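Homework help board

Subject: predicted structure for assignment chain

Our instructor gave us this sequence and asked us to write out the predicted structure in token form, then describe one feature. I got the tokens but I'm not sure how to describe them. Can anyone check?
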Amino acid sequence: MEKLKKFVKKNQVLLIAVCVCIAALTATFFAGGNLSDSKVQTASTASSISTTSADTETTSVSATEKITQSPTDSTKSNKDNKDKKDEKDNKNSEDKKNSKVSSQNSSSSSVEKSEKTEQVSGNSTSDKKKPSSSSNSSSKPNKKNDVQPTTQDKYKTDPVPSGKPKPVEPQEQETKDTNLYCTFTITCSTILDNMDALDPEKIELVPKDGIIFKKQKIQFKEGESVFDVLKRVCMDNNIHMESSWTPMYNSAYIEGINNLYEFDGGRWSGWMYCVNDWYPNYGCGVYYVKAGEVIEWNYTCDLGLDLDSSWWEGAQDWKDTHD
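My token output:
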């Protein structure tokens, strides 16, 4: 202990110097760590500021681009709206046009047949004249200037006279096995008075008495239409018959029987059907036969006026305005 005291006293100055150095080193060490943290924090802050500036710049550029593109998008939008409007106008125009065409009676030649033509039995001639329509399978023609009465049904058909049977949709009619009887005939007698209008190649097709199928009682099933009965009669008796379906009237259209077609006997010629001395103003495919009825298929050369002058009051007006 005495030796230690002597050593400290003897080396007092040296020890103080050592202590001062140690204190200085310690201070420097802690000061250096704080400076490093400060530098790191400063660098982080600078990075954050840089990022914020970049985000601000990006946002600014994005906003600028949006503003720049806005007029173009607006122009494009206006153009699209205009195109849609033009398309809508064109569609409306086309609908009006189709409506006008569909309002015509099937006696005009503009009614299109959309389903396959059905041909019953043989003995057909070559180069048959393709008809467009006949009053046998549709409503009566519209009156002067094609003005339609508001009382017409969805098939453009005038109201059925009081006491006469109304048409029945095919899908609503059920055929039964019950066998019934009616009287049936097919004639073309009116052609005999219009032979000069007939194609020379078809003169031999016209019977001398104008009767293609003699009036007789035939059997049919309950729920069959006039069209169904006609098909079976022609098939069973080897009589040519050609028909097509007319969606516009939801009924069959008889184009030709015995190779005699509409227009073969003149401009106003074609086939018409009659039931109990009445010419229905709707298609043969929606008239359902009842027991005991008398059915006639007659060829007209004068829009039905040569068969029954009163069958349609507007027939003469139609002829006068559609020459």
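Reply (TA_rk): Your tokens look well-formed. For the description, you could write something like this. The first strand starts at residue 118 and ends at 120. That's the kind of observation they're looking for.
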